[in-house]
Amino acid sequence: MATITKDKLKIDQSLHDLVVNDIIPGTGLNVEAFWREFQDIIHEFMPRNKELLEIRDDYQAKIDAWHLENKGKAFDAAAYKKFLSDIGYIIVKKPEHRPRFNIRTENIDPEIASIAGPQLVVPINNARFALNAANARWGSLYDAFYGTDVIPNKGKFEKGKEFNKTRGLKVIELSNEFLDKALPLKFGMHKHVASYALTGEKGQTRGLKITLSNGVITELEHSDAFIGFNENEDSYNLLFRHNGTHIEIQIDPNSPIGKLSDSDVKDVILESALTTIQDCEDSVAAVDAEDKVLVYKNWLGLMKGDLEETMEKNGKTITRKLNPNRTYDDLDGKLLVLSGRSILLVRNVGHLMTTDAITYNGENIPEGIMDGVITALISIHDFRGLGPYKNSRQNSQYVVKPKMHGPEEVRFTVELFGAIEKILNLPKNTMKIGIMDEERRTSCNLRACIYEARERLIFINTGFLDRTGDEIHTSMEAGPFLPKAELKKQLWINAYEDRNVDSGLACGLQGKAQIGKGMWAMPDLMAGMVEEKIGHPLSGANCAWVPSPTAATLHAMHYHYVNVATVQKAIMKRKNTPIEDLITLPLMPENFKLSKEELVAELNDNAQSILGYVVRWIDQGVGCSKVLDSKNIGLMEDRATLRISSQIIANWLHHNICTEKQVVEAFKRMAVLVDNQNANDPLYNPMAPAYDGIAFKAALDLAIKGAEQPNGYTEPLLHHYRYQLKREQEA
Questions:
Q1: What is the pLDDT of residues 47-66, one digit of tens each?
Q2: Which of 533, 552, 582 is the endpoint of a domain?
Q3: Which of 172, 240, 385, 638 would disulfide-bridge 247, Cβ 3.0–4.6 Å?
Q4: Catalytic residue of the set 282, 470, 638, 701
Q5: Residues 500 and 374 grouped into a single domain
Q6: Residue 480 belongs to some domain of the structure
Q7: pLDDT at 155
Q8: Are the beta carbons of 395 and 429 closer than 8 angstroms?
Q9: 258 three-state secondary structure
Q10: By residue range, what is the domain housing residue 189?
Q11: Domain count for the chain
């Protein structure tokens, strides 16, 4: 691996060349000064990063010892709380952490600060996925209904097949039902509309005339919802705003779909994924400089607006690029411009992992620090308007920071961002921070964490998978945990979800920042998502993760049905959930018994989940993919899935619920199933019957060695084996 030496830094040549030749030009920065000041940041923050990881280990050792000392005793939440407070794990509230404290973040784009809507998370190293997600700001409701199981159908619907008139009629029916809720008429229903027509002439103030099929003229119940229009060769389009987001009704008298109804509506377009997290972390397999260069190249392309991806589809060559803005005339004839793209956040790597892409005094540097510096450096292209499109109109960079444990680690990140801003000549607080509430020490001290980021905070969220993985690992010595499905029913998870919203609202996030909820992981089961995911805005969350652009369009309906700001005001009046509920451990009660058959089924499900994901991660470098579960249901998986599955098995091994032999047998059984599920993938390497490949060994190690992994994270083992495979392939 060729390297470039800059004093005490050794930089992989490909990364060095990307920074020097592609990233820095246009930023106004001096190359030599950049590397010198980058080294200063590493010198200051690398030892502090190590110290924070040591503090994690110290807390874990103390908690392990407490559980061992209290083994056999009935769990006492009050005693446990006192212990956690005594060791500093739970921070006694300071005056500034009381409910009256409010964040003071400034210069936030409204898509993050005040508008509720869906959020996508996408692996940034896949340019096609990154572009699709960035362009998912607007989506066709007709397509979303027609191409998913929201409309039941026999067999799998395939796009490109002959138009099905019966499905088309159902699409129109469902779309009209949506419009009746989001844009109700004073009298009549949208299914009875014969025409939507503009009133007034060009140069005059325009309005909307709605004529029903019986000739009666009506109007919108809320006339101010109609805000603009445009015309093109194919149709004229009417623009509406409701609950802060936009709806476009497209009118085309010649459309075959429009001809299925009286109104000639050819489509209903919803503003969908308001924001997208371009992910450098859990959904990415990036283990060396080669991988990181691709990550940074794609972020650079997004910030400069010139990222493109060419592919073959249905015999045609298609080039994907960022969508342009959408333009309309407002009702007074003035130009109205709406963004054609999601506001992009970038998720940096957490504090744990290091990278050999750059070494300092011969030691790998923290990957999260490198991400912080280089993604911010790249964002200067957006701030300076060097590309055709702006991401942040407020010249802010939105950084989601995962896997932080408690306020000390948040403070470290805030101070790191401040140092990065200085070396890049950026105004203070340009770099905003999203705190992922996925570690128990953060959940216990969320208000203190928010306080540390009070001038930068733009996001908090919850996530069942990572949070449960940490719950299990933190309390590994407490006893055996319940199976995954049972964990979702326990006291602690509801306390976790409620306290996150309560803390965010108490700290003034309403109208200033996102309160988010986790992923709907089944991209093929959209009917279930439409039915269930309305629970997220009803919980007071103003954004929630979805697995695809289509899912974003369907989930966008929920934010028209629910006014999240109104829900949040009601929630602020409720009594906060006590921390004792949060720290009550979801252990197996004495009367909970798994039969032999139930144990085998649980081990099979967890082993299959791990194998299906790991085999692509290790062999193909795919960090996020749709993995078939043991029932052949496609699940969007990233490393968080591995963390919970591996920690369940590790916990059961530790407490003799199962044996290592049973675990190995389950992995071998499921390897055969996973091989069969991937039989049509030409890049797939079967694991059976030898079971001696690197991917199988990595998957098995995640479970058998799970108890000894730092905080139950899967990254160290995954990176080790993927790195090993890449080096073997190069040899």
A1: 999 999 999 999 999 999 99
A2: 582
A3: 240
A4: 638
A5: yes
A6: yes
A7: 45
A8: no
A9: helix
A10: 138-271
A11: 3
Q: Is-contact 230 335, C-beta < 8 A?
A: no
Rounded to whole angstroms, the Cα distance separating 543 from 219 reads 31
Cα angle value 674/675/676 (rounded, 5°): 90
Query: Residue 158 class from Cβ within 10 Å (0-12 exposed, 13-18 middle, 19+ buried)?
Result: exposed
Whether residue 359 is found in the same domain as residue 465? yes
Helix-strand-coil split of the chain, %, nearest 5 = 45, 20, 35
Pairing of strands 543-546, 514-517: parallel
H/E segment holding residue 38: helix 31-69
Place of tokens 């920074």: 19
With CA atoms as reference, report the closest residue to 513 among 603, 450, 562, 463: 450
- By DSSP bridging, strand 316-321 and strand 308-313 are antiparallel
Instruction: Compute the distance between CA of residue 541 and CA of residue 387 in angstroms, rounded to an integer.
Output: 33
Residue 421: inside a domain, yes or no?
yes
Residue 59 domain-assigned? no
Q: How many CB atoms lie within 10 A of CB 132?
A: 18
Residue position matching structure tokens 């080669």: 290
Residue 96: the pLDDT is: 52
Q: Which two structure tokens, joined as six digits, stand for 266?
A: 């050819």
Tell me, yes or no, if 638 is annotated catalytic.
yes
> Residues of the chain whose pLDDT is less than 50?
155-157
At 615, the amino acid letter reads V
Neighbouring CB atoms inside 10 A of 136's CB total 25
pLDDT at 94: 60
- The single residue of 56, 137, 347, 440 carrying the catalytic annotation is 347
Supply the pLDDT for residue 625.
Answer: 81
**For residues 516 and 495, what is the distance between their CA atoms, to the nearest angstrom?**
15
Q: How crowded is residue 613: how many other Cβ atoms within 10 Å of its Cβ?
A: 27
Cα 299 to Cα 283, 382, 391, 621, 666: the distances in Å are 15, 11, 12, 18, 40
User: Is 109 assigned a catalytic role?
Assistant: no
Question: How many of the other CB atoms lie within 10 Å of CB of 416?
Answer: 23
d(CA 93, CA 448) in angstroms, rounded, equals: 8
Rounded to two decimals, what is the model's pTM?
Answer: 0.96
Write the CB contacts of 686 (distance below 8 Å, at least 6 apart in sequence). 675
∠414-503-494 over CA atoms, to 5°?
Answer: 120
Continuous segment of H or E residues that includes residue 212 = strand 207-212
SS3 for 349-378 is: CCCCCEEEEEEECCEEEEHHHHHHHHHHHH
Is the Cβ–Cβ distance between 267 and 281 less than 8 Å?
no
CB 332 within 8 A of CB 205: yes
Spell out the residues 6+ positions from residue 42 whose beta carbon is closer than 8 angstroms to its own. 9, 358, 360, 365, 369
**The dihedral sign for the CA sequence 514, 518, 521, 524:** negative
316 φ, ψ (degrees, to nearest 5)? -115, 150
Query: What per-residue confidence (pLDDT) applies to 35?
Result: 98
Q: What is the pLDDT of residue 255?
A: 83
Kindly tell me the sign of the dihedral angle through the C-alpha atoms of 690, 695, 696, 698: positive
Residues 159, 548, 532: CA angle, nearest 5 degrees: 105
* Residue 494 CB partners (closer than 8 Å, separation 6+): 577, 581
> In 438-450, which positions are buried (b, 16+ CB within 10 angstroms) versus exposed (e)?
bbbbbbbbbbbbb
Q: How many angstroms separate the CA atoms of 672 and 441, rounded?
A: 39
Q: What CA–CA distance (Å, rounded) separates 562 from 113?
A: 17
User: What is the token pair recorded at 535?
Assistant: 């629970």
Cα separation, 606 vs 614, in Å, equals 12
